[in-house]
Amino acid sequence: MTPGQPIRVVMTKWGDRPHWEYDAVYLGSDEHGEWLGCPTGTHYRRPGMEFVAAFSGVVLVPARGAAYLAAFNDEHAQARTYVDMTTPAVWDGAVLRAVDLDLDVVERQDGTVYVDDEDEFAEHRVVFGYPPDVVAMAEQSAASVFAAVRQGAAPYDGTADAWRAKLATAY
């Protein structure tokens, strides 16, 4: 990948059910993983819902195959940090693919941090038949990310600010 390269993010739900899709731009990488930029005006679409973002943000595709995708948004978004628990993301050329596993760690602009969609996760693990190892991975990932966000541990320590600045000046 090269900085400035267009990227397509394709999220599905378990069983290859369509979920969020959007375009981004590759910004670069660091010790935390690869960073994608989503400028204001990015069009997000999933079955039954779509919107054009009135905010910008960057997405961290974590190194070492961690089971989440983390979005760090500007002050115009409701959530400063929004982390989707997923299967480890995979690159398919310039398309990033991951399966959303329902659980989300959210940090609001006021600093409140919580785990969202636990009810959806409980329902889907039965209805969609999540294997036990996938359930354990999602729960462990959510617990680890929640603790890191609350503690302000890297990359939830302002690391994304430099990438958001790069997005703002370059795209």
Q: What report would you give on this structure?
A:
The two termini are 17 Å apart. It contains three helices and eleven strands. The strands form two sheets. A seven-stranded mixed barrel has the order 1-2-3-6-7-8-10. It has a single domain, classed as FomD barrel-like fold. 25% of the residues lie in helices and 45% in strands. β10 (95-108) and β11 (113-116) form a beta hairpin. It is α+β, with helices and mostly antiparallel strands. The model has no long low-confidence stretch (mean pLDDT 97).
For this entry, give a set of tags:
11 strands; DUF402 domain-containing protein; hydrolase activity; 171 residues; FomD-like_sf; FomD barrel-like fold; alpha+beta; 25% helix; seven-stranded mixed β-barrel; two-stranded antiparallel ribbon; Ntdp-like
Distance between the ends:
17 Å
Order of helices and strands: EEEEEEEEEEEHHH
Main beta sheet strand tally, sense and closure: 7 strands, mixed, barrel
Question: Uncertain regions: pLDDT < 50 for 5+ in a row?
Answer: none
Mean pLDDT: 97
- Number of self-contained structural domains: 1
Helix content range: 10-25%
- Per DSSP, the total helix count is 3
Domain DUF402: 38-152
Keywords: Hydrolase
GO molecular function: hydrolase activity
InterPro entries: DUF402 (IPR007295), FomD-like_sf (IPR035930), Ntdp-like (IPR050212)
